[in-house]
Fold:
Amino acid sequence: MHVKNTKPYIPQEDINPLLKDIQTALETGNLTFSTEKFEEEFAKYTGTKYAVAVNSGTSAIEAPLRYYNIKDKEVIVPTNTFVASANAVVYAGGVPVMVDMDPNNLCADFEDIKRKVTNYTAGIIIVASCGYVPPYMFELKKFCEEKGLFLLEDAAHAHGASIKGYKAGSIGDIGSFSFFPTKLITTGEGGMVTTNSKEIADYVKQVRHHGQKNGLMTEMGYNWRMPTLSAILGLSQLKRLDSFIERRNEIANKYKNAFQDMKEIELIDVPGYITHGYWKYPILLNKYTAKEFQTILKEKYNIDTGTVYYPPVHLQPYYKENYGYKEGDMPSSEQNLKREICLPIFVDITDEQLNYVIESVKKELK
Ligand SMILES: Cc1ncc(COP(=O)(O)O)c(C=O)c1O
Structure:
């Protein structure tokens, strides 16, 4: 049996209506500038006033960063993230300042965030890692307000996840989402910016279209537009999101029940006031390194697994070379991520596959 680590879920019953909408778009030639419906529904779902569709999760970070004019300013970024979160800061002209990881939730360490704020800090990017909105989210928001910093929630992993009833992407000044095919919902490629600020929403709309407004270019912009075909898929996927989250939590519970008494594994605890999105199901290993155990699961059982993220951003060759980071700078990330793997999780994983993963992990670790 082969078990993939992740895959998108577009049920057969959605494909026919999708094809009909795609056919209409093809026949009318309406292939871009047609994302309003998806934006409206996404804003409603997330609980923000505005949502602006763009062509990637990375541009969904960079475009609002440009609004804050971060040129030569520092922006705090967790080191345990995909490189895109930090790269967007560099592209927008700022300096990413990495912070270490809290091993309890695999998100940024709030204490390290506080330590890294300087007079040059413009704002903070927080990542709801694997779909876990950090438990200190409201304290962080208050901290940012007191210090005059913007708070950007990189919710690329966290569509539909929530804390105390507030959805990821609705708490900070800005939320950014990715619709890459591995994500909780997909548009093929794509991204979304959420905000309650009309000024930010208007700015992103302008810069995603080469900085033009009413036919004149008054800002530096780019082509960050989302194609109509992507928005059609996004709208269809959005209708499924709640059921996807429910299913992912069901899978996560099965893993939890199977592994919670094993001393060879540490699980990530989630308090009752957080609804985890479970984009990934991470575990910390006590017996093997992640790399060793990934190889065992692949070679002996044909099970694909992932990491979030190794190496962490500060140890990526580019950041070591250009920003002077080195081994030892972020001890928690360096130690914990070496032993962290993500088990297969996707909506249509079968019971047979899930049991096979559970039994294989148990067999190797016990
Ligand atoms: C945390 C995080 N931010 C941003 C991105 C970038 O998204 P995209 O690949 O859609 O540009 C990703 C993609 O994996 C991500 O995991």
User: Anything to note?
Assistant: Residues 117 and 133 are 21 Å apart (CA to CA).
